[in-house]
Structures are given as C-alpha cells and as structure tokens.
Amino acid sequence: MIEFRDVHKYYGDYHALRGINATIKAGEFFSLLGPSGCGKTTLLRTIAGFEGISSGAVLIDSKDMQSVPANKRPTNMVFQSYAIFPHLTVAENVGFGLRRDGLSKDEMARRVGEALEMVGLKGYGARAAHALSGGQRQRVALARALILKPKVLLLDEPLSALDKKMREQMQVELIRLQRQVGITFILVTHDQEEALVMSDRIAVMFEGQIAQLADPETLYRRPNSRKVADFIGTMNFLPATILSEQGDQVEIEAQGFGRMSLSSAQVMGGATSEGAAVGFRPETLTILFDGQTATDRESMATIEEVVYYGDMTYYDVKLDGTEKAMRLSMRNVFGRPVLDIGARTRVAWSPGALVMFR
Ligand SMILES: Nc1ncnc2c1ncn2[C@@H]1O[C@H](COP(=O)(O)OP(=O)(O)OP(=O)(O)O)[C@@H](O)[C@H]1O
Are strands 63-64 and 209-214 parallel, antiparallel or unpaired? Predict the structure, then answer.
C-alpha cells in the first residue's frame, strides 16, 4: 500500500530522514514510534505530501507520489491540536470537507450523522464546537477526516493532549474504529505503551532511521538492540560473555545467572559501549516464596527496595554475584507474603526469557 524507498530528507544541512525503507500494508494499524526529534512527524508528512523529500521515493498503491500534490493524495491527517473551527457547530465541522461536493442537504446530514456515530458522538451535530471537551473535539476531528473516506488516515499524536483516562479510552475506540472502517491508520507517537496497545506493527525510529520494524510482541520480547530494548518498557541488563557457538546453540555466561545455552534467535547485535549483556523484562523474574520451586532455574538474591502499586509490587533485587540491583515485578495475588528490604530470597528465571546483546 505505502512504500518508502531509501527516503532521505534534508532541512538545509540537517539530515532529518536517513534512508527509510519500509512497506505499510493496506488495512494495517501502523505506528511510527520514537523520541522527540527522531523524524517521525517528518516521515508522516512525506506520505501526506506536506513535506517534499530530498531523494528516494514514496509510493502509494504502487504509484510514485513525487508529482502528486497533497490534496490529490488518498490520505487525510488528524493533528494533535484538535484543529476544529470553534465558531461552527459539530455538524458543520464534520461536513466541512464535503461542502463543495454539491451534496443534497439530506445526503450531507446522512453522511455527517454516519461519521458522528462512528466516533461515538451520535446526536451532537447541533452543538457548538467551542463547548466540547478535549476528547470530544478530537472525535470531531476524526469524524471530519473519516467522512472524506480516505484510504489512509494519518494521525499525528492525536491523543497526546488528553488526560490519561481519556487517552486510554480513545486508544481502544480508535482500534475499534479502525477495524470497523478497515482503512490504513498510520500513527505517530512517542508513547511506547500507546504504540504497543494499538498497532499491528511498529517502526521504532532513532535519529532519522528505522531501528526495528516489527509487531508489538516481537519488539517487546526480542528487541534487536539495547537501545530499542531501553526505549520500549523496562529491561534489566547484566554483563555476559559468549563462550561458544554451535549451530543454533549459543553457550553464554551471565553475571548472577551463570552458564546457560541460548538459541541463536535470542542473540542480537546492538550492545552499548558497556559491552555485551543479557537483558530481561521485570516480569520474567519471580520471587520464590516458602515451599515454591522453580520450574526452570533459580538464583539467590537480596531485596533492596519494595515498591507497592496495588495490583503489582516492584522489587529491586541484587542477584548474588552482581553489582547492581535488578527490577522484578510481581502481580499481587491474594495472600502473598510481603518481603522486607534486606531479606534474602530465591528468584526463579528462565533462559528462554533472556535476550543477549553483543
Ligand atoms: N521545517 C523544518 N526546518 C528545519 N528543521 C526541521 C523542520 N521540521 C523539522 N525539523 C527538524 O527535523 C528533526 C525531525 O523533526 P520531526 O518533527 O520529524 O521529529 P519528531 O520525531 O516528530 O519529533 P516530535 O515528537 O518532537 O514532533 C528535528 O530535529 C527537527 O528540529
């Protein structure tokens, strides 16, 4: 559906996009995720045609968009600042892009009603736009884009101005809406949780390049570099060395864990200057309480910090033989005993949950 072929973009001397290659499939919910300034908005704008490119090509439906102006592209954009007209009604805002299409009054009302229903604002047509809440305004902006039936909807941080509860609600509604209308959604966000929740696939960008493009689970479980691992969720790292490699099996030794065998799919490049390391997510380490046994491997550790979150408790534990504490998280199941700072404990872990960066 959309293809980037070695796309470069310069702003004067500044190299904002540095060789982007990617394909976005029709009907996909695709996110561009990365820290501020990594070029995700610039990349989104090259699809819309608001931004020219310096070299390479952007194709939509196999057609090179080089000479196609923004208003002739099958795309529509929803912005972070809900760019609606405060002096118009909700219905006038939603129907704005159709006003020159010569539709009958009835047809216009029908299309507006349909779009408002899609975004959960049925019956709001006559209201004044300036009297809406932030979440409602963003819905109006969405309805205004959807009514034009674009093949691709481009969303530039559409939820970032909303409070946490409203944002989470809108995330679920956007997913539902995308399934319902079946068009391609491309979302720009710097919020990794939002990207994980909403996307079929995510391109993680740093400094004008795509560092990894994968589905949420792969990004979370098998980040291809320490930088991606650090950007998405929390990952603990311990120094490790490779002892031998034979076929698909890689023998390693990691501080605190000892020797083990990993499959080559668990071994990535992308180590930092600190050297090779194994990484693991906080929920893959488990404290073993009295009488519990590890299903796989176990190590001894000392509790350094306990942080209670209601549904979860985070423990910072120092595994024997390591220098700094690792964070582990446990769901608070009814009746779980609480450990104190300084307590000695056994922790269970599994080599299958580790990723090695070399
Ligand atoms: N019109 C412009 N002229 C010059 N430099 C620009 C222009 N637009 C963007 N840049 C620069 O290009 C880089 C990428 O900008 P872009 O807006 O794509 O980043 P982003 O990843 O979307 O960040 P944010 O989340 O902060 O919006 C930034 O360093 C920015 O300062």
Answer: unpaired
- Kindly give the number of the ligand 1 atom that is closest to the alpha carbon of 190: 25
CA within 13 Å, CB half, 87: 0
Q: Indicate the fold that domain 282-350 takes in CATH.
A: OB fold (Dihydrolipoamide Acetyltransferase, E2P) (2.40.50)
Q: Report residue 86 as tokens.
A: 């405060």
CA distances from 88 to 78, 91, 296, 328 (A): 18, 8, 63, 52
Tell which atom from ligand 1 comes closest to the C-alpha of 38: 21
Q: How far does residue 51's CA lie from ligand 1's centre (Å)? A: 11
From-to residues of CATH 2.40.50.140 in the chain = 282-350
CA end-to-end span of the chain, whole Å?
35
**Which strands sit side by side in the sheet containing 249-254, from one edge to the other?**
258-263, 249-254, 236-246, 277-280, 355-357, 267-268
Q: Which long-range contacts (CB under 8 A, 24 or more apart) does 158-162 make?
A: 158/78, 158/79, 158/80, 158/187, 159/189, 159/194, 160/80, 160/189, 160/190, 160/191, 161/80, 161/81, 161/82, 161/134, 162/134, 162/135, 162/138
Residue pLDDT, tens place only, 25-75: 999 999 999 999 999 999 999 999 999 999 999 999 999 999 999 989 999
Q: Please tell me if the CB atom of residue 16 comes closer than 6 angstroms to any atom of ligand 1.
A: yes
Rounded Cα gap, residues 177 and 159, in angstroms: 15
Q: 2-221 has which CATH code?
A: 3.40.50.300
Model's pTM, two decimal places?
A: 0.90
